[in-house]
Structure formats: structure tokens, C-alpha cells
Sequence to fold (663 residues):
Amino acid sequence: MAITRNGCEGCAEITCASSKQVLAQDIAKNVRTAYDRMQSRGMSACLFGSGGTCCRNCNMGPCQIIDGVDEMLGICGANADTVAARNFARVVAAGSAAHTDHAREMVRGFIDTAKGEGPHCIKDVEKLKSLAAVFDITTEGREVNEIALELGEKALAEFGKQDSTPLSMLKRAVPKRQALWNKLGIAPRGIDREVVEMMHRTHMGVDQEYENIMLQASRCALSDGWGASMLSTELTDIMFGTPVPRRAIVDLGVLRADQVNITVHGHEPLLAEALCIAAQEPDMIELARKQGAKGINLAGVCCTGNEILMRRGIPVAAGFIQQEIALATGAVEAMVVDVQCIMPSVTEVAKNFHTDIITTNYRAKMEGAIHLQFEEHAALESAKSILTHAIKNFKKRRDFFIPQETKLDVVVGFSHETINYMLGGRFRASYRPLNDNIINGRIRGVGAIVGCDNFKLTDDAHEIIARELIKNNVLVLATGCAATSLGRAGLLTPEAARYCGDTLAEICETVGMPPVLHMGSCVDNSRILIAATEMVRQGGLGDDISDLPAIGTAPLWMSEKAVAIGQYFVASGAQVVFQSLPTTGAKKFNKYLQEGLMGQVGAHWNVASEPLEIARLMIEKIEAKRDALGINKKKERVLFDMAMRRDLTAGVPGVGCHGPSGA
Fold:
């Protein structure tokens, strides 16, 4: 197999123009990226691991299971379905745990803010009061910080609850879905409890039946989607401001030749927000000037990038698969990281340049990095210490290359509240216009493209799927690195309406919105749950999420968090499509995920291997929902004559051919 940076069989081809330009430079000739490692492996992925039938849950193995072959059961006797279900459930538990730990830190930061500690304040009072009502907190006649403190303390208690009372946020779901969760016994209790129970039940010798294992996997995932992630998103909005539409820039070209470039990579917004505040302080700006720079340029990477992009318009330099390439520009003084999705390889790439990798969270240290702990109770001071270290690297910068022709404008910041306002205005904010346009067929349905970047498929897969969806009048919602990728593809602007089918284009042009709505980071998929629930409440599209002509995909999923997200959407009644699942080695369990779950929760997993296949499957599922709702019938426009108008109002008291009596 030839080793090139243009892709290989089974590997992603680099299609991003700026990434190609950077890697073509002499300064990057010694940089090895994930693309290089993928191409030089010289071996295919383990079939047992890919199929989910490799078991390491005890020390009698590891056992490699072949479905249907008695001699290839686990040493304990576990069959392929049991092993694959346990492995899948553990992926859900790990992904849920990552979101849970993230959310707990956000709640703790929220409590500090409510106490008046740190540089932040309560910015969205209306949302504070709305969420307080969900937790049965009295707001009338009380100070804002007093309400916030009670909310924060009640939110923190959700993590450690030990009784069987469901999580408070479940009350936001439609009644039919709540009743189903209770019937199945999967309404989550304490957030941490569900992760612990999932890990216990998949320990050797505990839960052996794949359907029973998956009931707990659903409960664990729901504790993430309707618990941890939703809490994180809502409290972050209250503290830092609910996103509103704003123009910004994405791509590697956002780095500046004459400024200190600091990339912020990870997932917890507390660090990034503190850095944004500190970077505007006069003493930091003066320090940068003393080092010969004109200023400080913060740029986001991965989901932290999405957070500060939405709220502050801070540009995003790179998604997950570009993190090494951002360093290969030679123009980055420091990459500041916290938790999740940071490749260990970034320290090796940084050795080729003057760049420092600065870790800031005690949970996530790296060999070859500098650790400067971010202290939440002294956030501004910690942020200044990190910035000072980075600024002093500016004088060490040598050769560098920043792409100049690849920067793209994006419009971001489409929270649930923004969409509500955008469709109905301040005094009539409503999802009614969206529902009406789905019912009349101008919008066929809603497709969500979420999750990670990956090296297994072409890096323009997100773009291929989105273009096919909007061409067929499907409105697209996007989060995470998928959203950043779609921004680089030029689909996050109102001007992208030219790629839409006629009716979606007309709506986008009328409202002034993009056909692909950037809704935030991967933890912000909870916004999509809220939006879907509101669509049901508005009426006309069934009485549960499972009735909606809507479907989601994470085509380039990489992280365990993506599987947790997929499972909480399925358990909420929304179908999802992935490019692959690690379950193919277990026939009955694999069929259960892709068919059997429908009978329990009204949705199931789908698998399609190529981008266009994914898009067309999504459209097919949307059309099936439209058929089931009876809204796929084409209606001819009829000009009513007087006799038809009389027939229409016949028998309706007080109504004649001129309208209500007395009019």
C-alpha cells in the first residue's frame, strides 16, 4: 500500500484545502498525523473487535467469540449476543460518563457563579426562571443569584440521587414518552447511579440477556441526554448567555501572523470563557505587545471551539481530525487543552515547533505537555497564568505557514430559543410555522448531522449528506465537529439556500436563515431533544417524538460519547443512522438493535456504509413518517365558488358565507 497523504484503501482522503496546503509545506515534512498512521498500519481492523465479539471482562480470556459455534463461546459460556451487548452497553456507559463528568463541572461552576465567586455572572435571567420552574423552585420576589444557587444545588443533587424518583428534567418530555419510559422501567434515577449500574451489570457473571442489558443501556443513555447533557447546556446558557445567530469564521486560516495564536481544545466551557475574558485584559494585551505581537488571537478546536464560536464569535481553527494539522502550521504558540478528544500525538507534533501543549485539568495529563492547573475558584488568575506562558512563546516562532484563501464565513448560534424566536418573533415565538411547513410539504422533515470527525471515511462525508438532504427539502441541524465540517463546506450561511430544493430555499430566503443550523457542541444535542419535543407539543405531527418526520446521523462517529448520544435519541423515539456499529458479529443482538428496539421504544438503529446511502436512507425514513401521519398527499389548489363556501360553513352556528355573524 503506497503511503501518501492523499488517502488509501479504507482510509480517509484529505479533501480539506487548507489541510492539504499546510501538509505540503517544508515545515510540516517531519510531522506525522493520524492520516499517516492510518495509512502505514499495514493491517485491517480486528474482525472480532469490529464485530463486538471480543470479551475482556475477566482474566480467563480474552475470548474471541464466533457466533453459532459452540467451541467458540467464551470460557465462561457467554455467547456472541451476550458479549456484544455487554461491550455495546459499556460503550454507552463510557460515553455517558464523559458527558456526566463534564456536566458536573459545569454545575459546580454555576454554583460558584451564583455565590458571586469568579469572573462570570448570570446572563440569561429568563432562562434561569424557566429552568427553575422545572425544579419546582419559587422565583417570584427573589434575587437572581438566590434562585441560581438553589437551582445549582438541586441540579448537583441529580447526580447522586439514590431513590427511584426520576430525574427532574424528564418532566420536559411529552407525556406519552414519559409513560413509556415508566412502563419499561428505564426512566433514569440518579445520573451517576445509572453509569455505575451499567458497569456492574456488564461485569462477569451478572446480566447475561441482551435485551435486559439494553434496557439499562437505554436508562444510562437517557440519564445523559435528559440529565447530564441537558443540565450542562441549560446552565451554560444561563451563565454565559443563550446563543443567538452571529457571523464568524472557521478554518486554519483564522490564525494570525502578527498575533499570539492560542488554540483552545477540549470540551468544558469554563476554561475557554475565562481565557476569553483574560485575553481582553489590558495587562495581557500589553504583555503580548512587549513580545512583539499586535495582540492575542484565540481560536477554537473541537467542541470548546463550538462553545466560544456560538457565544462570542471566536473563530474555529480546526475540528477533531485537524488538531495535529493546526500545530503543523508552525504558527501556534500554545494549544491549551482540558478534557476529551485530545490526541496523545499532539505533543509529538508540537516538538517540531516552538509550540507548547498546556494541560489544565488534573483528569487529563499528557507526557510531553506542560501542566498548569485551571482553578475554577480563581478562574481569571489561572487563565492569565496560562496566557502568560503562551504569550512568551511568540518570540520563539520561526518558519510558519497560514492558509490565506480558505477562511469561510458561517452563521452560528441556533439554540432552541433562537429557532423559536426566528420562526414566530418575540411575541409569538413558536414552532408552529415549522410544523405547518412540514405538514404542507414545503419542508419534508428534519435531519440532524452530529458527532465526530473520523479517518475511516472521506472527510467531506458530512457535506455530501447535508447537500443531499437540503436538495430534497430536508432542514438540517448540526452539532459538534460535524457542524464545524459543514461550516468549512460553506453550508452554514443563508447564501447556501442556493443548494436547496425550491421550497426549502424559499423558506430560508424568507426567514434569512441557513439550511443547516449550527446548534452547538456535542453536549448540546440535548437542544435537539428539546426542539423535537416542542414540535410534538405544537401539534399536527403526532403525539410523540417517534411520530416526527425526523432522523439523525453521526456518520463519522469516533467517540464513545456518540454511541451514548445515539442510544438516548433511540430511547427517546428518534431513529439514528451510523456508518457502522460494533455488533455485526452477533446476529440476534445486531438484528435487535436494527429492528427489535422499534417494538419497545418506537425507534431503532440503522446502518449505512456510504454518505449518499446514509442521506437516502434518512430521506426514506422521513417519507415513511410522512406517510404514517397522512401528510404526504398532494393537494390541488381549489378556488372556492360561492356554493362551495356555503357548503363549507353549513351547519356551523353563527357562521355564514361572510364569516361569523355580526362581522
Observations:
- The chain has three domains: 54-240, 252-396, 410-629.
- Residues 410-629 form a domain with the Rossmann fold fold (CATH 3.40.50.2030).
- Confidence is low (pLDDT under 50) at residues 1-11, 649-663.
- The longest strand covers residues 260-265.
